[in-house]
């Protein structure tokens, strides 16, 4: 009988634990597997373990599971993943195992500390990082590393997790990455805790549906929160937006003269457009809307009529004025007249309050440049 270990199927009383641990040196793979499962049943069959008992279970189970095949380790990890009293040493070992073993533990175990998670996300692959990104809560310290090391699929999972906290620096990095990758647009814009100034940076690159969400959020924003968001955004606005056109200084002086004389009106901008005066039009538009020249130029160069509508609505321009600008900006090759009705409806649906709130974020660049 020396080559056999008798395993009782019934619930094992506490006095059996020493014998079970003594059998951990059994060399038979099958017997070790049965012992592993019996020890696991024994652990879950007792509702309360003291710290020493838990540590002992952890060390013995870890020793046994290390020599088991992947499927057995994965089965054991799944069983312990959501146990609040699981042995820390065992859970930590599972978390750093192959993905099939680690995934459920990384996603669900409350036993893992930030130190454990940081150890994993610093050295493991994207599957491990995604599992951590989907935890009920993710600290800023862990998220910082995931943003740094994660691929776009991992970043998408992290951004979609409202339980994941992102530092300001990590949020800025995420937004810069999202600007260049349409696959990240929805996760970024729809993230509830994204700072409002960073949310508005996404406006110029996302599709119409997401732009509408940004405008709606701006309209709902508490004035105090808006001011806080603007203050945060001013600290990071870049001023290196490219060289000014060669005729900028000359036309700036002319537009300033018109403004000083009270003659800078929306109708004057139409005259600039019709005479192919792109630079004076952009300068005048930036003056009327109180935005910087580079923002105005970007809107026109991209033929971004959504953004143009925000500018014109904030400046309280008539729908007819906006449509005139829109037709001129589009140019003949874009069938501007055929699109006029749709853009007219869009302009009518946009509230001035939402436009003004949105424009305040765009004005941050001008404030930063002036400073």
How is the secondary structure organized here?
Elements: H1 17-22, H2 29-45, H3 51-66, H4 70-80, H5 88-95, H6 99-108, H7 114-123, H8 126-133, H9 140-149, H10 152-159, H11 168-179, H12 185-189, H13 196-201, H14 208-220, H15 223-234, H16 248-260, H17 266-274, H18 278-289, H19 293-301, H20 305-314, H21 319-330, H22 336-349, H23 352-362, H24 364-370
Explain what you see.
This protein is mainly alpha-helical and 371 residues long. The chain has three domains: 1-94; 113-193; 195-371, no CATH class. It is built from 24 helices and no strands. The protein has helices at residues 17-22, 29-45, 51-66, 70-80, 88-95, 99-108, 114-123, 126-133, 140-149, 152-159, 168-179, 185-189, 196-201, 208-220, 223-234, 248-260, 266-274, 278-289, 293-301, 305-314, 319-330, 336-349, 352-362, 364-370. Helix 3 (51-66) packs parallel to helix 5 (88-95), helix 17 packs parallel to helix 21 (319-330) and helix 20 (305-314) packs across helix 23. The longest helix is centred in the first third of the chain and has 17 residues, at 29-45. The chain is rod-shaped. InterPro entries: DUF2336 (IPR019285), UCP035865 (IPR014598).
């Amino acid at each position: 009988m020396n080559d056999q270990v008798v395993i009782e199927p019934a619930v094992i009383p506490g006095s059996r634990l020493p014998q079970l641990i003594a059998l951990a040196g059994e060399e038979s793979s099958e017997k070790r597997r049965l012992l592993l499962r019996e020890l696991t049943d024994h652990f879950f069959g007792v509702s309360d373990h003291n710290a020493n008992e838990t540590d002992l279970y952890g060390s013995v189970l870890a020793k046994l599971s290390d020599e088991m095949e992947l499927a057995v380790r994965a089965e054991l990890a799944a069983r312990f993943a959501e146990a609040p009293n699981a042995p820390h040493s065992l859970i930590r070992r599972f978390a750093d195992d192959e993905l099939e073993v680690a995934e459920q533990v990384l996603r669900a175990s409350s036993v893992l500390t930030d130190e454990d998670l940081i150890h994993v996300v610093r050295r493991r692959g994207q599957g491990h990082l995604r599992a951590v990104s989907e935890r009920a809560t993710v600290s800023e310290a862990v998220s910082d590393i995931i943003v740094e090391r994660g691929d776009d699929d991992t970043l998408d999972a992290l951004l979609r997790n409202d339980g994941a906290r992102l530092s300001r620096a990590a949020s800025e990095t995420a937004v810069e990455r999202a600007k260049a990758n349409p696959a990240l647009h929805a996760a970024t814009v729809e993230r509830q805790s994204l700072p409002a100034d960073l949310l508005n940076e996404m406006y110029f690159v996302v599709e119409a549906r997401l732009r509408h969400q940004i405008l709606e959020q701006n309209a709902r924003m508490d004035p105090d929160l808006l001011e806080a968001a603007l203050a945060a955004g001013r600290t990071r606005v870049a001023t290196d937006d490219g060289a000014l056109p060669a005729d900028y200084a000359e036309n700036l002086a002319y537009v300033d003269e018109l403004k000083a004389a009270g003659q800078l009106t929306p109708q004057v901008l139409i005259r600039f457009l019709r005479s192919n005066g792109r630079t004076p039009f952009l300068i005048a538009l930036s003056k009327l809307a109180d935005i910087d020249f580079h923002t105005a130029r970007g809107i026109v160069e991209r033929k971004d009529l959504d953004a143009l509508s925000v500018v014109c609505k904030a400046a309280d321009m008539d729908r007819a004025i906006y449509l005139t600008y829109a037709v001129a900006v589009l140019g003949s090759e874009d069938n501007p007249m055929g699109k006029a009705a749709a853009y007219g409806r869009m302009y009518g649906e946009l509230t001035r309050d939402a436009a003004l709130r949105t424009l305040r974020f765009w004005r941050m660049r001008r404030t930063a440049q002036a400073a």
